[in-house]
């Protein structure tokens, strides 16, 4: 088993690989960005890819959702909620007043925006490919600080200047394992779909939601992303409890297909405990 993830080693994505059921002993293959990791799984260079799809503070990880829609072919096999602790990291002996730039992945910078405003107001931030990449650069250059986890701090020999700096006490990132096929029904499953609506049909989104409500199928998430084709055109992402093979769920999905312009089945998979 070869699994692609956002590298380099020391990222939260690597930690997610180590905690994901079924990946014990898998060969970890780091990639510099989500798109390359996804593409490797799509082309069969690796067996699966583990990517984040949402965070409890920052919301959807748009890069991953866009890949699922614009490069279809992979399905969600598992989900993994990972508690995330963000820390301010710098070379040992660095004082807060000596920091002249803070580096991290855009998601991490967003999760810690309140801390940055309160404690490092006026200090510029710079997005990096990953939290581990930020830590590596902070270790190489005086005056740089990184936002990342303790794994990155240990790997690159950095000190923790401030711990748990994320803006909410509970900071959880939901990862999904992506492969060629999803799984069989377990009795405790979730299904994810993406769809677009006919913009000339009033009430289209209401009609889709009603298909699940009338069958007493619980929706756990619904959100939208731009289609990247025109202003006001959106892709809707919807998660519901149940497996696509269960009769009520299959019936609801058939109704969705009849009512929408386009629908993608992103996978049915066991719900995290």
Task: Summarize, please.
The chain contains 9 helices and 15 strands. It has 273 residues and is of the alpha/beta class. The strands form 3 sheets. Strands 1, 2, 3, 4, 5 and 11 form a 6-stranded mixed β-sheet that branches. Strands 8-7-9-6-10 form a 5-stranded mixed β-sheet.
Largest sheet: number of strands, sense, barrel closure = 6 strands, mixed
As residue ranges, the low-confidence spans are none
Compute the number of helices: 9
Q: Which homologous superfamily in CATH is the superfamily of the largest domain? A: Periplasmic binding protein-like II
**Termini separation:** 24 Å
CATH topology of the largest domain: D-Maltodextrin-Binding Protein, domain 2
Portion of residues in helices?
25-40%
How would you spell out the order of helices and strands?
EHEHEEHEEEHHEHEHEEEHEEHE
**What is the domain tally?**
3
- By CATH, the architecture of the largest domain is named 3-Layer(aba) Sandwich
Mean of residue pLDDT values:
94
> What shape does the CA trace take?
globular
Proportion of residues in extended strands: 25-35%
Number of strands: 15
| Radius of gyration computed on alpha carbons | 20 Å
Structural class: alpha/beta
CATH level 1 class label of the largest domain: Alpha Beta
């Amino acid at each position: 088993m070869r699994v692609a993830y956002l590298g380099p080693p020391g990222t939260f994505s690597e930690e997610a690989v180590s905690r994901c059921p079924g990946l014990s002993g898998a060969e970890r293959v780091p990639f510099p960005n989500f798109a390359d990791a996804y593409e490797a799984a799509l082309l069969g260079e690796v067996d699966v890819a583990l990517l984040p799809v949402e965070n409890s503070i920052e919301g959807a990880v748009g890069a991953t959702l866009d890949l699922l829609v614009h490069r279809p072919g992979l399905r969600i096999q598992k989900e993994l909620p990972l508690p995330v602790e963000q820390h301010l990291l710098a070379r040992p002996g660095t004082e807060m007043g000596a920091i002249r730039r803070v580096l991290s992945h855009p998601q991490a910078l967003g999760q810690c925006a309140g801390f940055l405003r309160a404690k490092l107001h006026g200090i510029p931030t710079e997005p990096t490919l990953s939290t581990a990449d930020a830590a590596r650069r902070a270790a190489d250059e005086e005056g740089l600080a990184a936002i990342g986890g303790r794994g990155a701090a240990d790997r690159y020999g950095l000190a923790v200047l401030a711990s748990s700096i994320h803006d909410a006490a509970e900071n959880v990132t939901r990862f999904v394992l992506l492969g060629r096929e999803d799984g069989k029904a377990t009795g405790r499953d979730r299904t994810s779909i993406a769809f677009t609506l006919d913009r000339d049909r009033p009430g289209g989104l209401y009609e889709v939601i009603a298909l699940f409500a009338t069958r007493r199928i619980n929706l756990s998430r619904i959100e939208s992303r731009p289609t990247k084709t025109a202003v006001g055109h959106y892709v809707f992402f919807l998660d519901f409890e149940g497996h696509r093979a269960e009769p009520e769920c299959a019936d609801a999905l058939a109704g969705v297909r009849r009512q929408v312009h386009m629908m993608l089945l992103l996978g049915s998979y066991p719900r995290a405990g």
